[in-house]
Every structure is written in structure tokens, then in C-alpha cells.
User: Fold these one by one.
Assistant:
Number 1:
Amino acid sequence: MINVLFVCLGNICRSPMAEAVMRDLIEKEKLHDKIKVDSAATSSWHIGEPPHRGTQDKLREYGISTTGMQSRQLHKHDFDQFDYIIGMDENNIRNIYTMLGNPDSPKIFRFLDLTDHRMDVPDPYYTEDFQETYDLVLEGCRALLEKIKQEQKL
Ligand code: 4NP
């Protein structure tokens, strides 16, 4: 099994959006018995909470469910359990290094560095623009799935 972890600050806006969109792409390509997806927060602020209402509503518009999802914090052992550990922004990457160590590991990288945008995923908790974030997340997930398929020979 290939394990993918998306990480953001609160695990209620961006990383659960990426988790749900990625899972949807994986199911459509019938790769769900090969790739598993999860998400986590660098902070402890929203542990146990479901995704933000704006993330839930945006995903529902695209037929993607968030049922059962809840925020959890990143743990040190996540480094060993996941093959891809993806930060939504540069601050997340710095915090991942602090929490997990291994700053030289190629399995830790910033999400949109996989695309031509090479930028942080805008945080809709502040921008309130869940559409902008969704569009970038979808582009990032498509790029990530291609990378995984290539690297894992799927
Ligand atoms: P996220 O967004 O990291 O994409 O889940 C945020 C969620 C909560 C807060 C900040 C950003 N907060 O300050 O509580």
C-alpha cells in the first residue's frame, strides 16, 4: 500500500480538501486498493472537528463527501507510516521538519511545487475563496497522482 499524507495548519480547510479530492481521483482510476490518503494538522487547534463548512460545501458541489472526516494532529510516527508527506504551504513544511525531523527526505515537499504554480495553497480560512483553493487543489492532486503512478509503476 502507498500512503499519502496532506498537512496544513488546522486540518479543517486545505488538507482535508486535498485528501477528499485525491481519494476521489484514486477511486475514479480504480487505484483505491493501492493508494491510501490521510491528512493532519501541525496545530492542535481543531482536533476532532469536521472540515470547515466552506470546504464541505465546495466539495459537495463537486459530488465529493466529507462524511466521517475529522481533524487530527501530525505525529512523529507519521514519518515512517507515510510515503508522501505533503505540506500545503511553506510554513507547514517548516513545521513538518520541526515535528518529524528528516529535513532531507524527498518524501516531504510542498504541494504546488508539483505544478507550474510553485506557490503556497491560499488558505480559505482567511481568503474565504474556497473555489480558488479547490481549483488549485484539483490541479495539485492530478499532478501528484501522475507522480505516484510514475514512481510506483502503477
Ligand atoms: P487550514 O486553515 O490550515 O487550511 O485548515 C486554517 C484553519 C484554522 C485556522 C487557520 C487556518 N485557525 O486559525 O484556527
Number 2:
Amino acid sequence: MKRKLYLKTFGCQMNEYDSEKIEQLLEGENNLSLTQSADEADLIVLNTCSIREKAEVKVYSDLGRYRKLKEVNPNLRIAVGGCVASQEGENIIKQSPFVDLVFGPQTLHRLPEMLKQRELQGIPQIDISFPEIEKFDKLPALKNNGPSASVSIMEGCSKYCSFCVVPYTRGEEISRPLDDVIEEIIRLTLSGVKEITLLGQNVNAYRGLRSDGKIADFAMLLEYVASIEEVKRIRFTTSHPNEMTDGLIDCFKQIDKLSKFLHLPIQSGSDRVLSAMKRNYTALEYKSIIRKLKKSCPQITLSSDFIIGFPNETDEEFAQTKQILQEINFDYSFSFLYSARPGTPASFIKDNISKEVKEARLKEFQTLNNQQGKNYTNQMIGTKQRILIDSLSSFEKGYMKGKTDNNRVVEIKYDENLFNQMVDVEIKGFLGKNLMGEVLKSED
Ligand code: SAH
Ligand code: F3S
């Protein structure tokens, strides 16, 4: 009988990607198959996130529960990976001695060996090193679940924003060689994938080695990916404003397959706050990038990340953030309460703003942003959109659905031939909360 793996993932798309790899690795090497219930697991793996305090607290409360399971079943193994593991290292074992393995985002490929050593040595194993690009060479290719797939093109971040743990937990920026990325994408297309999401903490900081020894930047990578006939849509996330080169901006005009959507974190509309965050751009510089983008591609939709309540953010500075939200007219975006992360420069700033004030600001901000998102949805009625049909409608019989460039779900009448096809539709109205479309043209 196959042994059971319970795998819980917190945080960003990079973690989700890593978790898929963990699942496949442990299935192949350790004959473990996924279970939805921690109670029946032989191995529990937590792929953790430490970007904000809340995510971290959840990990420790889960561990408390698993300790009880281990009391009943001493053969249960518990592994903690991801960014909390990377940050806390052996502290995790000190605090929770029942944990068997601690591994980082760059050492997950070593899990089978660590499990083996745990049994041989009878003591917890810790490996949170950053062995550069080794991970990608050692991991199985992702199995295909439908017409969309993600491909990690770079890891880590070298920007060191003053509030952020990522450079410490995931290491500095490191890019995969161009050929490796292209080969993985071609392999995915052979199993029917049509939409590729390029993943990385800062995808547009991509500097991949080419086989001729030169370096390919992100714009060049996009051109290569677009040249693969079977790839019908390209998405990417996340980008940094300082890496929005003219070449990349031009891609939105030149590459038809590139989703006309960009998630570009701005964090704040105040220059004082941006500088304290060490973002290395001003609000005006950010707006100038947007102006160029809109010139290159007038139909582009934009979304962003915002941190509300950075230490000592004044009413006026918060007002500037609201203003830029409205001025750029961002689509549905992410906004977070500032969370002091241990060891980061911002965590040493003495803060004079109360939690109540910050929470009220966040609420006000999110209300504004939700309204903007709704307005976008309403304005899509009557427009032509491209969607990739990937599943049946989740609530309406006789319908199937796919997503637009800006991630709206559109339902269309069921037609067997349209499964896994890129389809042009005209948006006619709503079906439940989703949009409803009529097919204008399908791929082939
Ligand atoms: N690479 C991306 C960000 C990755 S982290 C970039 O270009 O900025 C995702 C988001 O989490 C960030 O954009 C930021 O808005 C938020 N975040 C990071 N650290 C945070 C903290 N300490 N408190 C609150 N939000 C934070
Ligand atoms: Fe974090 Fe800033 Fe990098 S938000 S991931 S340090 S760009």
C-alpha cells in the first residue's frame, strides 16, 4: 500500500510551484501519495511562508496539532520547509523537537535523502542552504494538469526592500539558463499545455545564460517563449518597477500572445515612504513607466501590491497612496497591513501609528480598490476577450469556463470541441458572479 503524504502550502505562487514539485518528488522516490487528511498521513510537509506575521503564526499553530498526531503515531514524520524554515532554521527543532526535517526553498530536492538520513541517524535533519541552481536540475518535470502550467525562471531577490524577508529566506536573484527554461516549456507543450506563467520573485530581473555564453534578459526570454508555436498565451509574475526596460514595455505591443495584463507592485504613493522602503523609485517615476506601457499597449490592465501602515505613515502619505490607486486606476490589487519582520531594517523603526488607525486605513483602501475592480468588470461587457477554456462551469450545467487576460472568469455554452482551446468571446453579461460570453472565434 502506498504511504500517505499530507502537504500544506502557505503563501505565494512560488511556494505552490515548489509544493507541486515536492509532491511529485516524494511520489516518485518515496512512494508517497497525497492525502487530504493530516490524521492519516505518514509524512506531513508544511511549505511555509514568512512574508507577514500572520502566515508565520499559522505554521506554529498547525505544528501544535501535529505534535498530538505524533504522540499517537510515533512513525509519523513531520517536515517544515519554505521561508519560515529558512528564517528559523534549527530554532524550529528547538521550539518543536518533534519536527523531523527542516528544509529551505532551495533544498527541497534533497528531501528524499534527508528522510533517509533521518531514519539512519535517528535525529532531526536540517538543510536550509542555498546551493544555487542545483534544485532545478534535480527536480522532476511538473506533470500536466490541464492547459495551463507555471515555469519558474528565477529564484530569490536582490532588491532588499527595507520591510521584506524574501532576500534572506530565498537568497539572492539567480536565473535559470535560457535553454533549460525553453526545454521545460517545450516539454509542457508536448503534453498539451497552451498557457505558460513564468514565475519568479522578480521575473523581469531575469538574466539567463545562453548557450553562446551571452546573457538573455527577460524581454528576450519572452520572445523565445512566444516563438514556440504551441504556446498560445504567456503570463508572468511578479515584476519590479526598476526592471521595466523599454524592451520589455515594447513586448506588450509586439507579442500578441503576451497577456495584456501587468502586476507591478508599487507599495505606496508617497515618496517619503517609498524611500524609507528602499524601493528606489519615486511615484512620478512609477507613473512614467505606466505612461510608456499605456502608449505601447493602450488596452493593458494593471494591478499592484500596496503596504498600508508602514512605520510613521501620515494621513497625508496615506492620502497619496489612495490618490495613486485612483489615478492609475488599478484593477483588483493586493493590499496588506505592514508587518514588522524580524531582522529587516524597517523593523527597527520606531512606529507612532496605532493599529486601529492602520486597520481603518486598510479597510478604506480595500473598499476603494474593490469598487475599481467592479468597475472594470462592468466595463468589460460588450468587449471582445480571449479566454482559455480549461474546465466545466462550477455551478451552471451546460456551461464551461476560462479566464481573460485580467483573470476574470468567463462562462460560455458547453461545446466539447472547445476544451483546452483559446477562444475569442464577446462578453454579453453575467452568469452568477462570473461574466458570460459568446464565442466569436476559436483557435483552429
Ligand atoms: N517581488 C515583489 C514582491 C514579493 S512579496 C516586488 O516586486 O515587490 C509580495 C508582497 O508582499 C509585496 O509586494 C508587498 O506588498 C508584501 N509584503 C512584503 N513584505 C511585507 C511586510 N513586511 N509587511 C506587509 N506586506 C509585505
Ligand atoms: Fe521583497 Fe522587495 Fe524583493 S518586496 S521580494 S525585497 S523586490
